[in-house]
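[Discussion] Sanity-checking designs against the backbone

I'm trying to build intuition for which residues belong where. Below is a structure token string of 407 positions. I'd appreciate it if someone posts a full sequence so I can compare it with mine line by line.
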């Protein structure tokens, strides 16, 4: 009875938190696009570091305006090495992150800068809803329809359009680097022949296609409480953990049995190697918003153990897909000829080793694999040792494709 009472109290507190947000957002479904000029990723992080950076806007088939940044090596490095632009590489961020994730450490430690200094034509992807993208052609962010998407649309619309655009500008196949959600959408997109034919090779950090062995305590608690379904049912469409409400919601999930003194570890697993003194700086950029539907889709993967399209329920599935069950993304459809490089960690509580092995079994190819026993989920983008552990091997992998014959 005591355990049941605690859970009931916790659910009540969370419900009050959600309702208070809904009550203060009664105008959430209307309004026009905010006209205030927004800072750009180039201006915030890349140009100040001395790297040339250009902003691009790409429109998806369903009307979202995505931000893409194109980064070159620093002027001194370009002059010294006399390089033209190398092959294009697209960087794909994780959940509740955006393109800034690749530039949060020093130029010597951040993959975006390192790739540019090695002569790559670096393109930085930002999916819909993040602060570095640019809204929608007709929908305000205050409109619930603006947030009616999950990673399924990120794969089939956002990533597809990014790849098409970069391919058309450079007239070249591109390399793809993904982390976390960036790997989910990569796997899904690579099952589509019209998308994968424009990809030269991919390097995937913390690769995810299955999630049923997630061990992160805070995520397990949210799944058990069906928090995702509660939020969707109560009419909350945008998830923004930078907001006062979002931060309060996370804190409301903590108690004496699940301490939030180390919130990051309770979500990602214990990270070994990032600079904890820079956490305040990281939090100036992260987290970015996502949709409640996206979280719901991810939690469906955890509960069902599937890598499938969004499950609307039998009736709407029949309308949307012509079947009572959502169709799977079939990893065996990823071409055997597509070179893959993957790295996973022993302390990663989201990209679990068992789930990763499941992914490997379904792929028709045999990827190059790196295992880092001490790495947690965030180490793959923020570790102070990532250059030697990950980024140098990625660069060697890409250069082995023969696109750097002149250097």
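Best answer:
Here's mine. Compare freely.
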């Amino acid at each position: 009875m005591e355990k049941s009472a605690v859970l009931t109290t916790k659910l009540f507190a969370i419900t009050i938190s959600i309702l208070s947000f809904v009550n203060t957002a009664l105008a959430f479904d209307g309004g026009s696009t905010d006209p205030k000029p927004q800072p750009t990723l180039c201006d915030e992080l890349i140009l100040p570091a001395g790297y040339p950076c250009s902003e691009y806007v790409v429109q998806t088939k369903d009307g979202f305006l995505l931000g893409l940044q194109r980064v070159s090596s620093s002027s001194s490095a370009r002059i010294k090495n006399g390089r033209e632009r190398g092959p294009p590489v697209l960087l794909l961020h994780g959940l509740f992150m955006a393109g800034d994730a690749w530039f949060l450490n020093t130029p010597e430690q951040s993959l975006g800068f390192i790739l540019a200094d090695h002569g790559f034509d670096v393109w930085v992807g930002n999916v819909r809803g993040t602060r570095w993208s640019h809204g929608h052609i007709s929908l305000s962010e205050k409109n619930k329809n603006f947030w009616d998407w999950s990673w399924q649309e990120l794969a089939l619309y956002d990533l597809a359009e990014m790849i098409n655009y970069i391919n058309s500008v450079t007239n070249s196949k591109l390399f793809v680097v993904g982390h976390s959600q960036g790997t989910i959408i990569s796997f899904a997109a690579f099952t589509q022949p019209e998308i994968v034919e424009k990809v030269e090779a991919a390097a995937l950090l913390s690769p995810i296609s299955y999630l049923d062995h997630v061990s992160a305590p805070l995520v397990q608690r949210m799944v058990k409480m069906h928090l995702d379904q509660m939020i969707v049912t109560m009419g909350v469409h945008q998830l923004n953990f930078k907001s006062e409400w979002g931060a309060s919601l996370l804190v409301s999930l903590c108690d004496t049995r699940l301490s939030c003194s180390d919130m990051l570890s309770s979500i990602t697993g214990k990270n070994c190697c990032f600079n904890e003194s820079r956490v305040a700086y990281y939090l100036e950029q992260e987290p970015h918003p996502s949709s409640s539907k996206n979280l719901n889709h991810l939690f469906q993967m955890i509960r069902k153990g599937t890598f499938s399209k969004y499950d609307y329920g039998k009736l709407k599935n029949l309308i949307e897909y012509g079947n009572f069950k959502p169709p799977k993304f079939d990893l065996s459809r990823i071409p055997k000829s597509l070179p893959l490089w993957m790295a996973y960690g022993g302390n990663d509580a989201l990209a679990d080793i068992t789930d990763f092995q499941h992914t490997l079994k379904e792929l028709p190819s045999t990827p190059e694999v790196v295992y880092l026993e001490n790495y947690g989920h965030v180490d793959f983008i923020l570790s102070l040792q990532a250059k030697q552990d990950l980024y140098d091997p990625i660069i060697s992998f890409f250069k082995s494709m023969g696109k750097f014959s002149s250097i």
